Amino acid sequence: KAGVTQTPRYLIKTRGQQVTLSCSPISGHRSVSWYQQTPGQGLQFLFEYFSETQRNKGNFPGRFSGRQFSNSRSEMNVSTLELGDSALYLCASSRSASGASRETQYFGPGTRLLVL
Amino acid sequence: QQQVKQSPQSLIVQKGGISIINCAYENTAFDYFPWYQQFPGKGPALLIAIRPDVSEKKEGRFTISFNKSAKQFSLHIMDSQPGDSATYFCAAIFTGGGNKLTFGTGTQLKVEL
Q1: Torsion over CA of B69, B75, B78 and B79, rounded to 10 degrees?
Q2: Residue A94: its chain B contacts at CB < 8 A?
Q3: DSSP string spanning A26-42?
């Protein structure tokens, strides 16, 4: 069974540009969550999608957005990049949308974004 | 606001020793507490998890101890091995919060020979 895949794995952008990251969940998983990981702030929740609907959103500015497609694949977009957006962006998938079901969330390897 | 506090930031343990990582939470709505292990270049992977109605859960060499009244929980790694060297994150989630995990700041564990 293939795991969560994220593309690209590495990305270098300059300030002011925008970037789109992609996540393909495990087959059969309908929930996709995104996290930002930095040395200073650790792992922070960005948003969660289930059945093409955003179910949850973290405390990030509107420059961070996402969407989910009918095949459960998800993309996140960061517009007007800032130096502080340099981070590892992780996506996690699970079968259901409810934390109460205690479904395990499986993380991908992440996309490392460097903003110059 | 750091809702889940984790300590220590780093830990060096001798092979065969016990590694102990502590976490404390503030939000009493949290009702599920997983621990994740992350190796360099990889995403976090679920290690073990506990509900607050259980005081201890053991899986192999890994044990979670949970103190609901103190709002604290800890991970014990028995007989620590060099292959356990990784970053460990405690996390918390609550019913109704979807799949949003609130993570601790992480502990970098190094197990020396």
Answers
A1: -160
A2: 99
A3: PTT--EEEEEEEETTTE
**A17-68 pLDDT tens trace:** 999 999 999 999 999 999 999 998 899 999 999 999 999 899 999 999 999 9
CB distance B31 to B94 below 8 Å:
yes
Closest residue, chain A, to B2 (C-alpha): A41
A97 DSSP 8-state letter: S
Q: What is the pLDDT of residues B101-110, one digit of tens each?
A: 999 999 999 9
Instruction: Tell me the residues of chain A between 6 and 35 that have a Cβ less than 8 Å away from chain B.
Output: 31, 33, 35
Q: How many whole angstroms from its chain centre is CA B50?
A: 10
The residues near A70 (Cβ < 8 Å, ≥ 6 apart) are A52
